[in-house]
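User: I'm curious whether this sequence folds into something compact or stays loose and floppy. Could you predict its structure so I can see for myself?
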Amino acid sequence: MAEDKIQMPAGMGGLVRYFDDYQSKIEFKPMVLVVVILLVIIIELTLHYKLFG
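Assistant: Here's the prediction. I'll summarize afterward.
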């Protein structure tokens, strides 16, 4: 029964390689994203309290 085992190739050990050659056309600085996220949170809170407050 031990002879019936199927062996998988020992390629990369299950690791996935990601390539850095792709450049996005849209890039944001991290601080801009933080400010946008904070603005969305503030807008959500004000809408919530104006509707239900």
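Summary: The mean pLDDT is 80. The two ends are 71 Å apart (CA to CA).
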